[in-house]
Amino acid sequence: MTPFVTDVSAPAKRLLATLLPLALLSAPLPLLAQPANQSVADDLPLEEIQTFAEVFERIKRGYVEEVDDRTLLRNAMRGMLSELDPHSAYLDEEEYQSLRETTQGEFGGIGIEVGMENGQLVVVTPIDDTPASRAGLLSRDVIIAINGTPTESMSLQEAVTMMRGEPGSELRISVLRTGEDTPRTFTLNREVIRSESVKHELLEPGYGYLRISQFQTRTTEQARQAIERMMREQPLEGLILDLRNNPGGILQAAAGVADLFLDDGLIVYTEGRLSDTELSFSASPDTPAGDIPLVVLINSGSASAAEIVAGALQDQRRGVIMGTDSFGKGSVQQIMPLGNGEGLKLTTALYYTPNGRSIQAQGIVPDVEVVRGRLEVAESRLELRESDLGGHLDAQQPATQARMSATERLRDDYQMSEALNLLKALNVVDRRRR
Fold first, then answer.
1. 326-351: per-residue pLDDT in tens?
2. What is the H or E stretch that residue 262 is in?
3. Active-site residue 304, yes or no?
């Protein structure tokens, strides 16, 4: 008796005829070298292949609507990858191009990074200065519907595709926020998202602020230029590196940014099943930041490449990590082009910090925990300043708008304010030791 189903259609028979030779060819070499009297069927999942063909046939015959073979096979490939982990996916031509645009720093959408967590579509972080961030979307918001369509059975790539579109078009998403029972609905207008990944400013004389919102192709060079620009204005006594709500990006860019602060030692290494997935990045002597005191801000929206930077600087004791626990995405995905113009995003390795820590599902724990908040200063009725006295002399050089803006930001951002205070304290201690 044949071990395969006999009552199948021509497409299912063709499918079996294709899958079985492929299964035999894909067997490991030791199996192919075994004696001829040992059954190949004992080592290959022939029963599962038979079941797959049977399911294929029953869908073809009995599903309420007719489905073509191409769609069924494509869906099978999507399912095969989505069951591996939340980050592996089959990318059609549009999705493949969209992912490439993201790494280059320009795409049409609302400016949001999402991921799958326990089967739910979760906001990893909104990108700075985009419709999503301006509307008030937060890390860990659970997206339950996109334009009225529930996301419960939606793949990550399907959700990303739905949220992207022509600039000016409207998008409506419903989210459930931690601690709230009623969903919130946001109506956003898509924009051309040109995300400059690096911003910088001087918070006070001698104290710089470097914000990296994601890691793109040019992030390392942009960060280097920002540091050099601030140092040209005046010597830096301290620097805040802000990686909060940074969803990650390109591995090489993360290693390059860490190298800006390190002049020796390991930055990150990866381990996978294949030799070409085992990479190692070490610091070079050329570092523009030198020994400038450094505080790195992270939070639950700091993921992947952002965690690589924070982990390297923490293990190398190059700076103080401040904030809250990071997201915990410690896997590496490779984007593989396929012959039909589409692509495959496949998790191929895990990355490790210099001390051998895996960040996967654990994250980076800050050296100093500081929750986000707003700095409120109590005012005393008896407090008297020179400016309150009649006939006081005005300052010869009024504060600049940039300084006023920085002051407002420090007041509104408790974590940044605490980071600046820590840098000042480190400088005081350092001067006393000299």
1. 999 999 898 899 988 899 999 999 99
2. none
3. yes
